[in-house]
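Hello,

I think I submitted the iron/sulfur cluster job twice by accident. Can you confirm which output corresponds to this input? Input:
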Amino acid sequence: MCSKEVASLPRPVIDENECKGCGRCVAACPKGVLMIADRVNCKGYRPVEYLGEGCTGCAICFYNCPEPYAIEVHDLEGDE
Ligand code: SF4
Ligand code: SF4
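Support: Only one job matched these inputs. Its output is below.
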């Protein structure tokens, strides 16, 4: 039962090579669970990263991102 609850948690899915590191999603996330990485992607931008917990699935990050394929919000259960 516990693992079922964890498995259904929403989280952002980032395609780091589509991310331009603009930080809009970081600023917009009401839970503060996104950050800009220290490394660079294949295009030379520092991509956004998920801290790993705390996402509510609100999708505000998705709606604030100007890059069509950089960030989505998934439910782990829905991916299975
Ligand atoms: S879905 Fe909401 S809580 Fe989750 S990372 Fe995006 S803005 Fe933050
Ligand atoms: S995911 Fe989108 S909004 Fe967030 S830093 Fe990357 S390009 Fe900007």
